[in-house]
Each structure stands twice: as C-alpha cells, then as structure tokens.
C-alpha cells in the first residue's frame, strides 16, 4: 500500500533557528515525499554579524535570503516570513522598525491568525514549534510557542510537536565545541544545562543521520551568523558547530528531538521515531 503524503510546517523565530533544531527532520520529510513549509516569525535584523553584513536594513535582507538558501538545501517547497522584526535576546526591546513591529510586541491573536492562514491553506498535518520556555528563554522563542499553539487551535492542525534537545546532549555538544574554538564574550555554556527538555519528557526521537549533509548545508547557508569581526571575540556558536569534524558532527547532529504537549510523558510503547506516526 502506498504511504500517504503529509504536510509539515516548521515555525521558527529567526532565520537560522531551523538549521539548528529541525533541519534534519525537514530534509528527511522532504526526501520521503512529504511537503515541507518553513515559516520564520522575524527577519533576524538584530542578530550578531560582521560589519560587512550591516548597513541600514541590509542584515534583515541578508538573513531572509540565507533562509531561502537553507530551505533549498533541505527540499523545502515554500518559505514565508510572518512579517515581524527581531526582538533581541535581552535588555530593553528596541523601537519598532518602520512598517513592522518587534515580534514580542505582536498581539498573540493577530500573529496566530497570520500563521493559521498558512496552516489552513497548506492543510498542515504537523506543526513544529517550541516549548513554553522557548528552549533557552529567548523572548521571540517564547512568543513562537504562544503563537504556534494558538494558530494550531484556529487551524485545527492535528499535531503540534515542540522542537527541543535533551539537556545532557546539547550540554555535551557545547562542551565539545568549546574544545575546538572559543565562544563570544558573555556566552555562558552552562545555560544549556538548564534549558530545553529532560530526556524523560521527550516523545519523539528522529534519526536524521542520512540527512546530516543537508543539515550541515543548512547551517552553512546562514553565513552571516557564523561571521565575526573586531567587535566580537571568539567564534559564533554556529561557526563553532560547523568546525566540528565529521564523523563527530554526524554523531552530535544525527538525531532531532520533539515533545508532543498533548501526551503526558512517553507513549505506552515508548519513544516515537516518526513525526507522522499515528495521524488519522
């Protein structure tokens, strides 16, 4: 019997978030014949980058172009920007740019309606989003959780999966990266020991080892976020990850994890290995 084709919508806060958290799953779904759509909430205009990427609104333009390049490497068929600006990680929220607003200021219902329109048009089977803490607490990631959950309600999307990482796994990856290159000033690697999800609460573990080449290409597409100049010391996190040699890279990034918020703990028959398993 021929398998059913599904539609996967991955919703992320900033350009490059898809590369780090869900690119392997996206590439696998596309390779297996499913339709994959990428939605980014913000243009990433406040991301750190070398000076050559900055002048006026140039960084936002560059980062959205990088997202399209990343999507092409993954087999994504549609890329959408939800229309908001980057809110920044901490400190006072900057003023809204002309014609748009910082995502953390966006009314949840308004943003959810925008996303729900895409989910409905695409007849999405699965929405990838974030957990209530936004993984590591970034205010735009928290808003992605809020908007994603509400949009799925509006569009009646059958399944929402929260992209995450087992705390021990990402802490180990950061420690390995730290052996190869230094992180920027102010970067606290112990943050990851308190972030994301306890292993016992993860419901889906997806094997993406066959697709790590696409995942690496997705990361590499976001060149501005691996850049550095005299105003920043140490390598950017993305650059450090890309310097991890193969096959260690394949081991570190060969699996991706999700939590189904509708399930309390794991299913009775254990962790799931297919994001579409059990759908009507």
Automatic annotation (TrEMBL):
InterPro entries, sorted: GlcNAc_PI_deacetylase-related, LmbE-like_dom_sf
- Write the record's keywords in alphabetical order, separated by commas: Zinc
Named from the GO MF annotations, one term is: hydrolase activity, acting on carbon-nitrogen (but not peptide) bonds, in linear amides
Query: Is Nucleus one of the keywords?
Result: no
UniProt record, GO biological process: glycoside metabolic process
One of the Pfam families matching this protein, by short name: PIG-L
Which residues, by range, are in coiled-coil regions? none
Q: What protein is this chain from?
A: GlcNAc-PI de-N-acetylase
Record the organism: Knoellia aerolata DSM 18566
